Amino acid sequence: MNEMTPNASCEALVQLKAALRKNRRDAHHRYFQMATVTAEGHPKNRTVVFRGFGADDTSLLVITDRRSEKIVELEQNAAVEVAWYFTRTREQFRISAVTTCVDYRGQSKEDLALREQVWQQLSEAARAQFFWRSPGRPVDTGAAAAITDAPPETFALLKLNPVAIDHLVLSKVQTRRRSQLKDGCWHEHWVNP
């Protein structure tokens, strides 16, 4: 049970999707913490909203404002770590990922279509904040943009592509599985919780 087992798919991602289903009655199941690294090498943590999985069914989707500090940090270092805890099933997922930013310039037609799809799924209130003044600036500086139906240049979709997952179950029988992506295959092994 301790040996590394190569696998084309990741059992930890299967368990993450199961945890999302089992915890869907709790509104907080859609929120996780995401840490980036500043130019000075300091961790920077924030709570983000999970917007679903990418077309590959493995990348986690998050939205952000292109003017935010996290974009600058991700341009310098695309690595992030996610901490996601589900209270109903008492599971924690720590996910190391490499981030791709999909903005108005787009990387591909598929990415631009995904960005548009996520934009259309947002509430009016969520869309409106991308037209506000620049985040993190002193109050009353800058100008708000006119609201349009199309996603503005400030709207970005982050695709978090997992490269390692640490899944800890804290129920009566505690278990812990580590998964790592190497050479296109997931290698998973059990460790002491």
Quick gist of this model?
The protein is an alpha+beta fold and 193 residues long. The protein is built from 4 helices and 9 strands, in the order βαβββαββααβββ.
Explain what the structure shows.
The structure is a single chain. This protein is an alpha+beta fold and 193 residues long. It contains four helices and nine strands. Strands 1, 2, 3, 4, 5, 6, 7, 8 and 9 form a nine-stranded antiparallel β-sheet that branches. A hairpin with a 5-residue loop joins β2 and β3 (43-49).
Which features does this protein show?
alpha+beta; 4 helices; 9 strands
Architecture blueprint of SSEs:
Layout: E1 5-7, H1 11-22, E2 31-37, E3 43-49, E4 60-65, H2 69-76, E5 79-86, E6 91-102, H3 109-121, H4 124-128, E7 155-169, E8 175-182, E9 185-190
Listing every helix as H and every strand as E from the N terminus to the C terminus, the arrangement reads EHEEEHEEHHEEE
The 3D shape can be described as globular
Strand share of the residues?
A: 35-45%
Helix-strand makeup class: alpha+beta
Ranges where pLDDT stays below 50 over 5 or more residues in a row are: none
Mean model confidence by pLDDT: 93
**Structure summary, number of beta strands:** 9
**What would you report as the Rg, rounded to the nearest angstrom?**
18 Å
Largest sheet: 9 strands, antiparallel
